[in-house]
Design goal:
With about 250 residues, the chain is an alpha/beta fold. It contains ten helices and ten strands. The chain has helices at about 5-10, 50-60, 65-80, 105-115, 135-150, 165-170, 180-185, 190-205, 220-225, 245-250; strands at about 15-25, 30-40, 45-50, 90-95, 120-130, 150-160, 175-180, 210, 230, 240. α5 links the parallel β5 and β6. The structure holds guanosine-5'-monophosphate (3 copies), manganese (II) ion (MN) and sodium ion (NA).
């Protein structure tokens, strides 16, 4: 069949599954929430990485219903355990440029939040810096409404794309997720250390929260902590895991 038909059938069969990777507070390493990462569980083939199917899903428009289904699955699994989640538990979903002009996103976020006791979840949308959208009246309105709902916006993969200072000031961005490539090079060379220091200073000036991704070593954690980056994410703290494993893992990290 066509890519569109293949993805639609996979969606109907609920083959797109949420994996969760913990996000921790830099200061004490406590889990404060998770990023949701999509996996395609194709029977007979195993798990397919998102890089291989997200671009196709974006081209065919299927990314919208796929993200909606992911949100529903996460709510179904986590809502019964709401009382055990960290306070204002951060749950981050990756969204695509196509979401930014779709008013249905507001409804999807509203439904997600409504599945949990009020105030128990802080919903984050991660928009990659690789595909920043041109603002339109429709997107401005959508993000205003999301903001009123309490939904936070993060720019993902920050530092490698083209978000200008102007862009960050124009949009209400609540957090920047520092791209893994900066974290990988901590200790390796002075130029990237200087770039990282500059990113942190910029975010601090703009009063934007920081999350560093791809933290794999204690040395990287210590460096980022000393820079006062607020949140950390990476294999050092936890790999993306099937959502059924998340609550048991969380219980071991409080
Ligand atoms: O989980 P992993 O590192 O394999 O993810 C690879 C890429 O796929 C990352 O850039 C990540 O942001 C993206 N990705 C993962 N899940 C989703 C999703 O649900 N929606 C979108 N749009 N991108 C996703
Ligand atoms: O705060 P200010 O009025 O400058 O923000 C402009 C609008 O852009 C607001 O409605 C804000 O919510 C919205 N916004 C925030 N983040 C994004 C984003 O990533 N993309 C788009 N298109 N709009 C955003
Ligand atoms: O683009 P985005 O930040 O959404 O994608 C995150 C990707 O990075 C996922 O594919 C995830 O599996 C991967 N990832 C998360 N933590 C680490 C890490 O510590 N090291 C490496 N190499 N990859 C990571
Ligand atoms: Mn992300
Ligand atoms: Na990233």
């Amino acid at each position: 069949g066509s890519p569109r038909a293949i993805l639609r059938r996979a969606l109907e069969a609920r083959q797109f599954e949420p994996f969760l990777q913990p996000i921790v507070r830099a200061g004490d390493g406590h889990w404060i929430g998770a990023e949701v990462l999509m996996r395609w569980h194709l029977p007979g083939e195993g798990l397919i990485r998102p890089d291989l199917f997200i671009p196709m899903a974006e081209q065919t428009g299927q990314i919208l219903p796929m993200t909606r289904d992911l949100m529903q699955q996460v709510a179904e699994v986590l809502a019964p355990h709401a009382a055990e989640l960290p306070p204002h538990c951060h749950i981050g979903f990756n969204i695509s440029a196509a979401h930014c002009s779709d008013p249905q996103l507001l409804e999807d976020c509203r439904n997600f939040l409504a599945a949990f006791p009020s105030g128990s979840i802080e919903l984050w949308l991660e928009l990659t810096e690789r595909e920043l959208i041109e603002p339109t009246e429709a997107s401005d309105l959508l993000f205003q409404q999301l903001s009123s709902l309490g939904v936070k916006v993060a720019i993902d993969d920050f530092g490698i794309g083209h978000a200008s200072l102007n862009y960050l000031q124009r949009f209400t961005v609540d957090a920047l997720k520092i791209d893994q490539s900066f974290v990988k090079r901590i200790g390796a060379d002075t130029l990237s250390a200087h770039l990282l220091d500059t990113l942190v200073a910029l975010a601090t000036k703009l009063d934007i929260d920081l999350v560093a991704e791809g933290v794999e070593t204690a040395a990287q954690r210590d460096y980022l902590r000393a820079l006062r980056v607020r949140y950390l994410q990476g294999y050092y703290f936890g790999r993306p895991m099937p959502i059924r494993e998340f609550m048991p893992a969380l219980r071991q990290h409080r």
